[in-house]
Specification:
The protein has 283 residues and is α/β, with parallel strands linked by helices. It has a domain at 1-83 and 175-180 and 210-265: P-loop containing nucleotide triphosphate hydrolases (Rossmann fold). It has helices at residues 55-62, 85-92, 110-121, 127-140, 156-167, 186-203, 214-220, 238-242, 247-254, 259-265, and strands spanning 17-26, 29-39, 44-48, 70-75, 78-79, 95-98, 174-178, 206-210, 223-228, 231-236. The protein has a 6-stranded mixed beta sheet with strand order 6-7-8-3-9-10, sandwiched between helices. It has a 4-stranded antiparallel beta sheet with strand order 2-1-4-5. A hairpin with a 2-residue loop joins strand 4 (70-75) and strand 5 (78-79). Helix 4 (127-140) crosses helix 5. The relative contact order is 0.16.
Length: 283
């Protein structure tokens, strides 16, 4: 706990997911710096922070798509970051992951995309039951009837919803969302927010959302964590974050450019020398 009373992610001990003294380096670049964090079961935790601060890297550690340089990751009290791929594949069936761009297979129909994780993890004997599962998952995201469509025929919001239906195909205990509203207009983004709340409520899942979208964060979060320079600098509910004394937190949630960045943008110089015409590239 620092001088401002910030707990830096050590609240909610004994959660469904725990990372302890987690450090991650890619070469010489330090991305996550000795983070300890516990994710409370059945709640929605939102991770915010500037681009490149390690938000996606953090949640990828939860399902060990990335392994820590130091520290450990535990799921339901069991250490998982040191498991082999065969054991990890079983652990990952407890998770649904909504990738930022959806990551649907363009050559597969909507139904085939949703069946994919089922086919990968189980030997299916009764395909009629699988059809019922696909129908139920699509109904949860408001897209029943789209089974035979291909992703290219869908809007961006519909693709995100199909990807979400795929993420819940195995009835996960935890759903991880990586920038779920990116690229969507405000109405479609709010549909995704409503689905996040619906799935938490109706399926009883634990939810972790990475986002830049503060409107979305405030709407869905039970708890908001902010990362900056590889560390947790704020951790609390929406009101705590809105009124947080750290200037970096306020700058981020207000969407203001920092003075250092402004100084670079305001540097004197001529724009003319940076302009080119097609003829400038002729031989």
């Amino acid at each position: 706990m620092d001088g401002n009373g910030e707990k830096h992610g050590n609240a909610h001990e004994g959660g469904i997911i725990e990372v302890k003294n987690l450090t991650k380096r890619f070469g010489a670049k330090l991305v996550l710096d000795n983070i300890s964090l516990s994710i409370e079961k059945g709640k929605t935790t939102v991770v915010i922070g500037p681009s490149g601060c390690g938000k996606t890297v953090l949640i990828k550690h939860f399902i060990v798509l990335v392994r820590p340089s130091e520290g450990r990751v535990c799921f339901e009290g069991r250490r998982v970051d040191n498991l082999g791929e065969r054991e990890l594949s079983k652990v990952r069936t407890h998770f649904g992951y909504l990738f930022q761009e959806g990551a649907l297979f363009d050559s597969m129909t909507v139904a085939e995309n949703i069946v994919f994780p089922i086919r990968q993890n189980y030997k299916v004997k009764n395909w009629d039951e699988v059809d019922d599962i696909v129908k139920a998952k699509l109904a949860m995201v408001g897209l029943d009837g789209f089974q035979n469509h291909y992703p290219a025929r869908l809007s961006g919001g519909q693709r995100k919803r199909v990807a979400l239906a795929r993420a819940i195909a195995l009835n996960p205990e935890v759903i991880l969302y990586d920038e779920p509203t990116t690229g969507l207009d405000p109405i479609r983004a709010d549909i995704i927010n409503e689905l996040i709340l619906k799935l938490e409520r109706e399926l009883g899942v634990t939810t972790v959302v990475v986002t830049h979208d503060m409107k979305s964060a405030y709407k869905v979060a039970d708890r908001i964590i902010m990362l900056h320079n590889g560390k947790i600098i704020a951790d609390g509910d929406a009101d705590h974050i809105r009124n947080h004394p750290h200037p970096v937190v306020q700058q981020f949630i207000d969407g203001h450019v920092g003075e250092d960045d402004l100084a670079v943008l305001r540097m004197t110089g001529s724009a003319g020398s940076a302009q080119f015409l097609p003829r400038d590239f002729e031989q």
